[in-house]
TrEMBL record:
InterPro entries: YbjO_DH-like (IPR019703). The chain crosses the membrane at residues 16-38, 58-77, 89-110, 136-152. The keyword Membrane applies. This is Inner membrane protein. It comes from the Bacteria. The lineage of its organism: Bacteria, Pseudomonadati, Pseudomonadota, Gammaproteobacteria, Enterobacterales. Keywords: Membrane, Transmembrane, Transmembrane helix.
Length: 155
């Protein structure tokens, strides 16, 4: 054990912005699920899952949302280990989610499970972009600091 500590193999070399971004992804995703479950309660949560399973398109969107959730968590863990694929995977999921939310909110895609209400398209786009502001900040932590860029370039 003392040899391991002397050699420094236990010391984490992940830059702080990358660790903060990875932890933020994990924490915000898990907290959002817990807050949603708390807000809806067990009966309403079961009703939501039941309603989502009524039609094929709702079921596919519900399953896709769960897969994106799990993929985002996987990306967070892999990017903290230095995988550039994790960083770009997170970017890809954010693009897919943003496009779906905008299209569903404007009414171009049905069903509108994850849509944002609004009176006009401009208001819908504004609310959607405001909801995505934390993800933009996480992406800035992954791409802007020199330590983050060097960390992913060396891997």
């Amino acid at each position: 054990m003392s040899e391991t500590l002397k050699n420094g193999s236990m010391i984490n070399t992940t830059p702080v912005p990358v660790m903060v971004a990875g932890c933020a992804i994990i924490i915000t995703r898990c907290l959002s699920v817990l807050m949603l479950a708390n807000e809806l309660g067990f009966d309403e949560l079961a009703n939501f899952v039941h309603r989502s399973a009524q039609a094929w398109d709702s079921t596919l969107i519900f399953i896709a949302s769960q897969l994106i959730f799990l993929f985002e968590l996987r990306c967070a863990f892999t990017l903290m280990r230095g995988s550039n694929r994790g960083r770009w995977g997170y970017v890809a999921t954010q693009i897919v989610v943003l496009i779906y939310m905008l299209m569903a909110s404007v009414g171009w895609i049905y069903p509108e499970i994850f849509s944002i209400p609004g009176e006009s398209n401009a208001q819908i786009i504004h609310h959607t972009l405001l909801q995505k502001l934390p993800e933009v900040l996480v992406l800035l932590l992954l791409f802007v600091p020199a330590s983050s860029r060097a960390f992913f370039r060396n891997r």
